[in-house]
Structures are given as C-alpha cells and as structure tokens.
Amino acid sequence: MEVQLQLKLATGTVAASLGYESAVDEVVKQLGLRMYPVNPGTQDSKEATRFRIPVPDQSAGERVVDALNEHEGVQIATFG
What we know:
- Helix content is about 35%, strand content about 25%.
- By secondary structure, it is an alpha+beta fold.
- It has a single domain, classed as Alpha-Beta Plaits (2-Layer Sandwich).
- It has a 4-stranded antiparallel sheet with strand order 2-3-1-4, with helices on one face.
C-alpha cells in the first residue's frame, strides 16, 4: 500500500520545487514515513515532483493523504 504524491511546481522548474519537496518531506518524516521519487533522476519537471510513500495500512494511508492535501506544497495526494 502506498500514497501517491504530486508536488506543486513552484515556478515550473525542478530546482524551484525543491523547497516544496523539503517542506513536504519534513511532514512525511513527522508521520514516521519516507517518500521516494517515482522517477529518480528525471529532468522532466512534472515527473520529478511525483513521489510515493509506502504505508502499513489503509488508516495510515488516509491519515497521510489528509495531512498532505492540506499542505501548500502539495498538488494532490491519493491513496491506493
């Protein structure tokens, strides 16, 4: 089970989105989880902002989605 995460593009560049990535990663760590890039090493700005977060069960997934969808750096977080 995992949460799929799409960060917002700060100014349309990967470098500008790193601020969002860092802030969202901090929230994920506070929940006791880690986020992993879906396409590591890509130079495509949209693909570089896609992450996955493994979760132990459905309730954890739903908590993560609720927390992340309220964050200013998150475009969308979904569980499934």
